[in-house]
Specification:
Length: 447
Amino acid sequence: MGARSRSAGFWEARFGLHERGTTAPRECVAGLATFMTMAYIIFVNPAILAGCGMPKPAVVAATCLAAAVPTLLMGWWANYPFALASGMGLNAAVAVAALQPGMTWQTLMGVIVVEGALVTLLVLSGAREHIMRAIPLNLKRAIGVGIGLLIAFLGLQHMGWVVKDPGGGLLAQGSFNAKPTLVASAGLVLLMALLAYRVRGAILIGILGTASLAWAADLISPATERLVQWPGQWLAWPDFSTFGQADVLGALQPALAGLVFAFLITDFFDTMGTVIGVGGQGGFLDAQGGLPRLDRVLLVDSLAAVWGGVCGASSATTYIESAAGVSEGGRTGLVSLVVAGLFAASMFLAPAVGAVPAVATAPALLVVGFLMIRVVGEMDLASADEGMPAFLTLLVMPLTLSISRGIGVGFLAWVLVKLLRGRARDVSPWLYAIAALFALSFGLGTG
């Protein structure tokens, strides 16, 4: 008992569990929920970066390593339940950039290292934190709602409720005759029931329950599309051949300055939106919408971008899926330590993680999106100068699948409407500066 008591006392003293109204078991459940919701990156990221000519097995290990180290640092030093991994969208941009003649994946990883270093300098100078604090509270809330809608929309796509229109339109209705859609829909019903009964660990139970439904569906109808790809082996030694291969000198050539800027502005504001959205959901923000110890969060995130390039996994960034753990009651960095440990283990167990199919996590994304948009009731939508920029922010994010684009449109709209109303002094100089940067980015087609 003495050893157990000392252990409990250590975790309490390190993370302040009681002060934040949580317990170690609850934090562990929250960590599992976050990991299960974002574990898809272990398979999606290598599939995307393989198009750049990168060795897929090595990118699997790189993806896990790029997530584990900064997530561990975020939990231990910043003491927040934020998890980090290779950013979706940024990795796709890497794949597109690889199509340029003469471009190598080593140079692209060098670009990631350079843009991460530049963001780190902005953090160390205090500029990034000043920008965070300059954002009006109404826009901060809109960012959180917009991210919630984006997460929900991604969940709908993964569930098969929304698909690309084969007739050339933007979207079309999915088919409920498809096995993946039926399983995911049943999982959503299960999750709604668990939430309605206030079951602790509802999201994690829902993910595992839906995965079980997928396994059962494959047994019942093996002739149709299989939902679960059982691994041929359960253990695999990590391949670190992409580590340290980033060509930083090649990335510093003037012709790549625009590419560096494009990655920088996306990385900068995607993280800003995620921290505000998830921080608001967890009740971490103060009365002015600020986040305590924000400097630590931003420094870890910027260094994670550098680390992701060094590993060969694209830029690592704070994940909106962290909201899954926060929804489960996770409130401290102990959540992140659990996630980091699971990513580290996944370097060896990557084949086994595939036994949890995408249809099992899709309903969880929809539920997390719902939990995040509830702050919309606290937004000021009565006045046009406050409400319209916020509305554009939360609308553009899901429709463009871009957090940074939504933030940029919102910032520009806020500045313009204040100028038109003759209230230029109500706008922070920092907000003018970043609105101008977004205008430049949009004009150059890089944002």
